[in-house]
Amino acid sequence: MGVASKAQTNPSVGTEGYKKKKHIEQIRTMLSYPEIICIYMAYCIILIFGLAREWVSKSMVLLGLKQNPFAAPKGYASLFKDLEYFWLRRFYQRCRDCFERPIASCAGTWIDVMDRTSPDENTSYQYTGTKSRVLNLGSYNYLGFAETTGPVIESVAESIQKYGVCSGSPTVEAGRCDVVEELEKMIADFVGKPAAIVFGMGYATNSTTIPTICGGRGTLIISDTLNHNSIVAGARDSGAIIRTFKHNNTHDLERVLRAAIVEGQPRTHRQWKKIVIIVEGIYSMEGEICALPEIVALKKKYKAYLYVDEAHSIGALGNTGRGVCEHWGVNPADIDILMGTFTKAFGSVGGYIAADKAYIDYMRKTSYGQIYCSSMSAPCAQQALAALKVIAHTEDGKRRIKQLHDNSNYFRSRLLALGLCVFGDNDSPVVPMMLFHIAKIAAVSRLMLERGLAVVVVGFPVTPMILSRVRFCISAGHTREDIDIAVNKISEVGDIALLKYDSYKVQE
Known about the structure:
Helix content is 41%, strand content 16%. With 508 residues, it is an alpha/beta fold. The chain is built from 17 helices and 15 strands.
């Protein structure tokens, strides 16, 4: 039975319902000009104080009162970029304690965070020897496979005894094993494609595959403006011409497609040899699901190729976890390249490309992710394979997927009921909550940790300056009690940090 025949038919995920939801482009309209000015003023204040401290520091170096540990040897140019160095020291370091937090446990539903203090404004840390038990709302443990007991982890332990812990070689040399081969066959069948190829790193799956597919002159890449950095890196490395369209806006995508076909290549105006549209299944910072049916229609209309990154959607969307195609009821045959990772729903590492066999055979011989990078180790492949078998063939897999959807939708609805500014789509395990102001990034992260919540806060340059946010990641491992505890504590922080923007109205 094909994947298309198993597609989800729930009318709530139709494109009309999709358009009525609150999305990131609408969030921008919520801020008034005085509020935007206040946000930029906060950046300016930090910048002014940062420049003042930098001037004092350089003066002390010139006077011989202190040494500059980053100074280049005499006669050499500096290896550091001045602007990035300034940003790291005067912006990032002020809130560095909100990041790089070491844990001393499995990255499951509850984690142990190592307690630490800093005597020198986050330049270095001293560990107290104690740990804090906190609820994990930041890891990509979507289906709860980050666990230390059960049949999945037991099979991984057996594979370590049989294969060791690493491959020690690229795939084209001696890095291929039977576990990887079985994983490739099973993931191809799972997503409804004839063949698949596995990579040892999720980021490298995009960054080393896109140049292989899109390399050479005469290729045009049309990319969503909010695509992941791995896609950006791969597109730039390909040497192709890159055009972008407004995030998840199919009208703008059609405008870009029409202009590309009419105008042709720069200077010569010759026809493009090929046009490749690249989108994501779930956008990792927005929690939004791509408008796949409309994108597929445009792809067919203008004879372009379509590359879909399912890093966050495979295993998380659809009644059986088959991703964004199942969610929308789209036939996987209409997608030329399906990419996904094993780092989220499967609790492992690496990624895959699923496509026609001819494409896969070509990639095996040309992608430098296969030629130069170490292949996925057998234990990591076994983790992904065992998790995939649970998802595809057991009632436990179905339970985990349903639990993830229920948890995500319940958590999102509870936050919205509190007046917190939350956006994204139903069934998405990524639930962003807006902070807007830069000062709230560190404050909210610290307040959450004090209340036993581990969260991810995100700001510029990862997001636009005025769109700082908290990104919650929900797991099937969370119980309803866990979510209620989290919501109550988030509500407390929302009252303290003034995050309940319930007076805002989204323009529909």
